[in-house]
Here is the input.
Amino acid sequence: KQEVTQIPAALSVPEGENLVLNCSFTDSAIYNLQWFRQDPGKGLTSLLLIQSSQREQTSGRLNASLDKSSGRSTLYIAASQPGDSATYLCAVRPRGTGFQKLVFGTGTRLLVSP
Amino acid sequence: EPEVTQTPSHQVTQMGQEVILRCVPISNHLYFYWYRQILGQKVEFLVSFYNNEISEKSEIFDDQFSVERPDGSNFTLKIRSTKLEDSAMYFCASSSGTTGTEAFFGQGTRLTVV
Here is the structure.
């Protein structure tokens, strides 16, 4: 059964810092991995989708990497801003039966202070 | 930009009552999903729906739950007899395909069962 873990659970940084959020998954048989942002009491905003054949994807100040064989992904946020404060979730789409669902991690709660 | 919309944003219901949560997926998408997030816990998959039938469901999605696409635009989740433990944020999502495509989520419906 696929398990997704995110470390750290919470992170507090001053504005301007570069930071890395980590996501690990137990089964490397995945189709893709997706990073989301969740603001308190709100929905999930898709940030980046990485296919299993890709190593990284970039969108603006965000860069996500994927090392499928080791079961890891990182989300790098450059020059963090207070508006980046949110919970960041990673989710994998497993191969085989159950391929239609996303399996989510517990999230990293990020606070960027001015 | 196309988005998934959900109504209502918050619903309070008495234990034992039936509730229907509504979603309008992105118009050209073919795959529809419901997820839920109990406060402080992971986002969990409930069900996926394609071509007017359930294509996959989790152990959570028991006989108390049902989904329907009553017309060309709406996608609904019905809970027949709500329990206190059904209190959660319910997210609708849609995608244009399955394994390789990005899932887009709505803002969620917060269901409170009292």
About this structure: The mean pLDDT of chain A is 94.
